[in-house]
Known about the structure:
Layout: E1 23-27, E2 33-37, H1 42-51, E3 59-62, H2 68-79, E4 83-86, E5 92-95, H3 106-109, H4 119-126, E6 128-132, H5 142-153, E7 157-161, E8 164-168, E9 177-179, H6 185-195, E10 201-205, H7 211-222, E11 226-228, E12 234-238, E13 246-250, H8 255-267, E14 271-275, H9 283-292, E15 295-299, E16 302-306, E17 315-317, H10 329-336, E18 342-346, H11 356-361, E19 366-370, E20 373-377, E21 386-388, H12 392-404, E22 408-412, H13 415-418, H14 424-430, E23 434-438
Parallel strand pairs: 2-14, 3-13, 9-10, 17-18, 21-22
Antiparallel strand pairs: 1-22, 1-23, 3-5, 4-5, 6-8, 7-8, 10-12, 11-12, 14-16, 15-16, 18-20, 19-20
Amino acid sequence: MAGRGIATAFAYETGGPALTMDKLIICGGKPLRGRVRISGAKNAALAVLCASVMAGDKVVLENVPDISDVRDMIDIIRHVGSEVTWLSESSIQINPPPRLIADPPCHLVKKLRASNLFLGPLLSRFGFAKISLPGGCNIGVRPMDLHFKGLACMGVNISMEGGYAVGRAPSRLKGARIYLDFPSVGATENLMMAACLAVGQTVLENAAKEPEIVDLANFLNCLGAKVRGAGTDIIKIDGVPELKGCLRYSVIPDRIEAGTFLVAAAATRGSLVLENIIPPHVEPICAKLREAGVEIVENGDTLQVRADGPLQPLDIKTMPYPGFPTDMQSQMMALLSTVEGVSMIIENIFENRFQIADELKRMGVRIKVEGRMAVIEGVPELYGTQVKATDLRAGAALVVAGLMAQGRTGISNAHFIDRGYHRLEEKLQSLGVEVYRSH
Length: 439
């Protein structure tokens, strides 16, 4: 089998070379109408891709979104020695090597935070991992601190060496009982993967319960792991000597992409049918939209959303799943900006989520931010202008605002949006939106 630095070309072209034009232009003011198919979940796909390096044989993944984060993760997987081939627009084949290269390069790792999920798989299979901390995190940051504490309980020695987190396990990892001070998704995923090849049983208490956790557990079990309890706050993993391959595994639909289209339909007073949905995954979002007066009808794996008349203001608090997701807070802020009355959003997960407020103000939104609370006073309408995405979900919020606004909105730093939304322009165009890329 081929070794490090495999230069396998894509067997299937999924839209040609990456777009270099970094501004998204939206001509708003029209309701969204039509049908849209939701792509595979970004966060689930990234975790499953990391776990694939633990497989002992070929893995075929389906419903994989062709987005920049996924392509960056594939670059890392190729560097550690796996051979990756696109089989179609949304399916890939991964041939893991017999020996892993346990130190992916810094310039790749720093492109996406989810790259820290290689710690568990590399340590579990290889006994060594050297990972540049994504986004400049250090050991004092709470989320990575939980990763390190849990791995230490399993016999890993973690040290910081020249900006890298270096983990060494003198022998096979050992099962342990680990309590997470906060139900961190990343820490739960990393420790769950590490435990699969450990000796004995690992029990994760106060584990994250997000659908992406369940999807990762299902994939690991497809490889021959023994994971129970995913989706609850106690996950038990019985270690096995090795994992096998998996000839077909389909990644779950993206609940945040689904939520973004639900909000966009409501914000433009449109009518959409969303296909490829797991309704319970988006129930926290649907519940708030229904509270605002949006009509949402479930029919199997589809949702029909319609917003005809005036909406009601909302109070929202972001919480770990099954609470309202932090990844939907910015989009809801855009929606609430034209709802008569006063709405309030409290951000309990990430302290910098309100950076979007300043950009929305440029479009006529009235927002007052105090610490982790944002108060939104509804205005009659928004106006298109030049704005800048500061992160992925802020970019999604600006897209929603641009769809609502009168006139033309130019969103720079559109590469942030490309990190999480598969073929967004094409999907919006199919719903009647005039949208295109520009320099």
